[in-house]
Write a structure and sequence with these properties.
single chain, alpha/beta, Rossmann fold, 7 strands
Length: 209
């Protein structure tokens, strides 16, 4: 099988799962747009932590932002790059395979960051959250999003149908927000929709700045 044929097969599997979710009332693309829209007026460049299929990165790019999307899974990023290219967004997203706890970006580089459906995969979110705080500009916006209880149940059911599990670490947005509050962040928005809970945090400016 050629690389191109493999990508076509992987895209077909992604679309099949997307259709299954739709049949259960969950629109993955609409959810990504909802999460990003909740952040309000965003400035770039944007950091997307945990590429997945690239849906959050593409939602950020559709808002006119230049995006760097970081993930440790090169195969997932290859598919995300393929999907972004088909959507006409490939030139606006740079996919960087690497560990979000050791970013190469300089201090206060990004205007906003998003972490969607990532926290429940992390056993220890502290290193990633500390790096995110480091690279965000003062007044920068961080969007945290994860499945609601209903969303977790739906996703787990689809994974079971496919013979997979969907482990949850127990890390929550509340625990992440508590950690970040000690690093100059405050929660500005909490909302729910599209099988997701969303929390928006702003990085406070230092006094006198």
């Amino acid at each position: 099988m050629t690389e191109g044929e493999d990508m076509v097969q992987r895209k077909a599997a992604f679309l099949a799962r997307t259709e299954r979710y739709l049949s259960l009332g969950f629109d993955r693309f609409a959810a990504a747009e909802f999460v990003v829209k909740t952040g309000g007026r965003l400035s770039g460049p944007a950091l997307d932590i945990g590429t997945g299929k690239g849906l959050t990165a593409m939602a950020l790019a559709r808002r006119g932002l230049e995006v760097i999307s970081v993930d440790t899974d090169a195969d997932e990023q290859a598919l995300a790059s393929f999907l972004a290219a088909e959507a006409g967004l490939r030139d606006h997203v740079r996919f960087a395979c690497g560990d979000a706890s050791v970013l190469s970006s300089p201090d206060e580089y990004f205007g906003c960051a998003a972490m969607a459906d990532v926290l429940h995969h992390l056993q220890d979110p502290a290193p990633v959250l500390k790096e995110t705080a480091r690279v965000l500009k003062p007044s920068g916006i961080l969007i945290l999003a994860d499945f609601s209880a209903e969303g977790f149940e739906l996703v787990a059911g689809v994974h079971r149908e496919e013979g997979w599990g969907h482990p949850i670490s127990g890390v929550t947005m509340e625990s992440a927000a508590a950690f970040l509050s000690g690093r100059g962040f405050e929660v500005t928005v909490r909302c729910s929709g599209h099988k997701h809970d969303v929390m928006v945090l702003a990085k406070k400016q230092e006094k006198g700045v």
